[in-house]
Amino acid sequence: MRCPDCGTDNIEGVDACEECGAGLAGLDLPEASRGFGGRLLNDRLGDLDLSTPVEVSSSAPVLDAIEGMRRQRCGCTMVVDDGALVGIFDERDVLSRVARPGIDPAKTPMSRVMSPNPLRLSAEDPPAYAVHCMVAYNFRHLAVVEGERLVGYVSVRNVLNYIDS
Questions:
Q1: Helices 35-42 and 127-137: crossing angle, nearest 10°?
Q2: CATH (residue range 45-164)
Q3: Per-domain residue ranges of the chain
Q4: What whole-number distance in Å separates Cα of residue 74 and Cα of residue 155?
């Protein structure tokens, strides 16, 4: 490893330059600064083409959420009360919390079938963090906020489109 101060060639892994004593610790660590890995680590979720969420209140019938998802051809609905994100509802919830138990979607409020207090990612978070959360928690859709304001959501599809671009 070459010392950035004096140019002396040092043995890989040493903490200080043998010639001038300059600190070299950590300078030989690999860094993802370009390409696919660098984009996943260094870009922000706010830079991605985020999806616009369907929004319903927690008192709205489930049918409103399902119809909104069908109309916008998206896989989730954000449940918002008084401007605050209080829940999320996705296509898996339709199958496991509505269809399977035989709940009437026209008469059931969202509060009974939504996932409350969804994980919120910041628009400043790197895409790699979204991928981590999707894998670690088995989520397909994550709310993206700036401060407390919902700005959209990121899905597996958003990440795959981002990787492909």
A1: 80
A2: 3.10.580.10
A3: 1-30, 45-164
A4: 10
